[in-house]
Fold this sequence. Notes:
This protein has 346 residues and is α+β, with helices and mostly antiparallel strands. The chain has 3 domains: 1-50; 52-162, Phosphorylase Kinase, domain 1 (2-Layer Sandwich), CATH 3.30.200; 166-345, Transferase(Phosphotransferase) domain 1 (Transferase(Phosphotransferase), domain 1), CATH 1.10.510. The chain contains 14 helices and 11 strands. The strands form 3 sheets. It has a 6-stranded antiparallel beta sheet with strand order 1-2-3-4-6-5. Helix 1 crosses helix 3 (36-49) and helix 10 (263-279) packs across helix 13. It is globular. The termini are far apart.
Amino acid sequence: MSPERFEQIETLYNDALALEPNARNAFLDRACGTDGDLRQEIESLLTSERSNTCLDTDAIQFAAESLAQQDGAEFMGRMLGRYQLLSLVGRGGMGEVYCGVDTRLNRLVAIKVLPAYMTDSREWSERLEQEARAVAALNHPHICTLYDLGNDGGMHYLVFEYLIGELLSDRLAKTGLPLPEALRYAIQIADALVTTHQEGIIHCDLKPRNIMLTKAGVKLLDFGIAELRYASDARVNDAVRDSASGTLAYMAPEQIERREKDTRTDIFGFGLVLYQMVTGRPAFLGNDQASLIQSILNDTPAPASHYAPKTPPALDFLLARCLAKDPSERWQSICDVLLMLKWVAA
């Protein structure tokens, strides 16, 4: 599969994922046309999205179930460096995720592997290494820890801490969050973003699916399209910037229009996540890709207090500034957002 084909699948998958489930078939009818292989690949990814991963299942239970699964059986017991693969548990835009064991330290880990058909692509391999540089530069209790980066026989992989918890997207699909809990999570996410921005890194893909709820609080996941503002390899950074990476429903206007991104892009994405935590619904909705884009570029979401009457006016004000279309009208620093959130929560 060529990088161009993979990029097409990634884009359509993210766009379909942003739609309500009952609108996805019509979208795929239009987007895929007569290309049955394209549609089958996207539907397979959407099905995988609904399944559990090693990040949200009890470790011992998951290990036992993994060994009993036949799906991905060809990888059972395979070694990547010192890591033994147990099972394929998920796919994303930047690779496949396996649950594995660190045989040296005897602990479960999450292993993100660049797909085999991409190993010959220098651009994509460099993007995986960019993700490693981005996460390795971060040390924060609310950011998923990167343990290792490796290349075994041409198979590039990243090794992350094993997390036990629940994705924020799964939590929101079942029930809303009480306001105090939403504010507590928001403060933790904003605090993590302070660290990423201080390191010159923009996440670029903030969304509920990239936030894990654990007993210790939230964990920010997936820096697969993170943009390093001070990267030494401008060629790799340009490759990331030139792709319309991200998930449509959580993109800032400048991402959709392929304009320059900066830390204020993350502030918009943070506002979208906080709005959904408080109200239980996305800030922007659409029946298809075109209407969703139109909504993001032109509509002003109703105040959160319209859907959640207990929302204080100060939080409505904070969200309105986060979601301003023009970056110059947003909060200019996530530090300011964090200070305001702490004041609202006090």
